[in-house]
């Protein structure tokens, strides 16, 4: 698919997901009934113990807990890329306090509307949600102390451009902590080419080594994987795309789908010869 087609497909899928509850999303194959892609419950983490968690904002779409590792401090400006209904934003807001600010960016109108409704119900005046594309983030350069994201960057067609934008909006000595889905080894062609599995955060994922290489290429330093776990996609989902023999080969070839949380710092703003120092 072309980049524009991918974005419209992802936007359409997540627009439908925004209209459902977490329970409805957990009960259907990909959050939208009968679409035969990935059950997001295989990726999601438990937020119940985190301060600032609000169940109404949790659609069960994450693949990690980036705020747990993001070293957010009171008074920070935090940007959440692909903020959905506001789940990670509200957790971040509990850390930054009244003196900080949280900006959520999402390109799905229904998600933005839901997030703003949640913020209004909670009475937060320092949490803001903006419509925007992660390949062209609607935030000025050198604005954020911390960038977070949860299982979203794998959906962006041009990941290098998304990482460049992360670098641009971070302040010097700012940092990011993002949870995402990556691959180790090759996926079968039928999975790579499945549009439904792109929206399900699988076919759009890239190799782990390539992911980390792109972050370094952009100029980030002190890059580290803070958490990693293998994600097991149920056979009943994979059988939609693979024969039994193909499924057995995939299970035995050492390939893996992983949820990782990655950290990196912007300690040298001139790494890309940008006029930002």
Order of helices and strands: HHHEHEHEEHEHHHEHHE
Determine the CATH topology.
Rossmann fold
Task: Please give the share of residues in helix.
Answer: 25-40%
**Which percent band covers the strand fraction?**
15-25%
Globular, elongated, flat, extended or rod-shaped: what is the shape?
A: globular
> How many H/I helical runs?
11
Per CATH, the architecture is 3-Layer(aba) Sandwich
The beta-strand count equals 7
For the biggest β-sheet, the strand order reads: 3-2-1-4-5-7-6
Q: Over all CA atoms, what is the radius of gyration?
A: 18 Å
Q: Report, as a whole number of angstroms, the end-to-end distance.
A: 38 Å
- Label the structural class: alpha/beta
This entry's quaternary arrangement is single chain
Catalogue the unreliable spans. 27-42
Average of the residue pLDDT scores: 84
**CATH H-level name... which superfamily?**
Vaccinia Virus protein VP39
Q: Using the coordinates above, name the CATH class.
A: Alpha Beta
* Domains, number: 1
For the sheet with most strands, the description reads: 7 strands, mixed
């Amino acid at each position: 698919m072309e980049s524009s087609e991918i974005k419209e497909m992802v936007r359409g899928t997540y627009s439908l997901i925004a209209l459902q509850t977490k329970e409805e999303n957990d009960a259907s194959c990909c959050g939208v009934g009968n679409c035969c892609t990935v059950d997001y419950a295989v990726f999601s983490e438990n937020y119940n113990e985190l301060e600032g968690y609000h169940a109404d904002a949790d659609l069960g779409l994450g693949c990690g807990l980036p705020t747990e590792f993001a070293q957010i401090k009171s008074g920070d400006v935090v940007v959440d890329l692909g903020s959905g209904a506001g789940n990670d934003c509200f957790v971040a807001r509990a850390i930054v306090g009244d003196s900080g600010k949280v900006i959520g960016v999402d390109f799905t109108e229904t998600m933005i509307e839901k997030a703003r409704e949640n913020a209004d119900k909670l009475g937060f005046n320092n949490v803001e949600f903006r419509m925007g594309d992660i390949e062209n983030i609607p935030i000025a350069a050198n604005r954020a102390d911390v960038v977070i994201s949860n299982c979203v960057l794998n959906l962006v067609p041009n990941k290098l451009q998304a990482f460049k934008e992360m670098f641009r909006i971070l302040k010097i000595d700012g940092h990011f902590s993002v949870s995402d889905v990556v691959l180790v080894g090759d996926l079968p062609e039928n999975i790579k080419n499945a549009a439904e599995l792109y929206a399900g955060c699988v076919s759009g994922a890239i190799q782990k080594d390539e992911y980390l290489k792109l972050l370094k290429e952009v100029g980030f330093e002190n890059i580290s994987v803070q958490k990693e776990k293998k994600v097991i996609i149920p056979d009943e989902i994979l059988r939609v795309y693979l024969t039994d023999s193909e499924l057995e080969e995939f299970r035995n070839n050492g390939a893996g789908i992983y949820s990782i949380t990655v950290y990196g710092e912007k300690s040298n703003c001139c790494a890309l010869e940008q006029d930002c120092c």
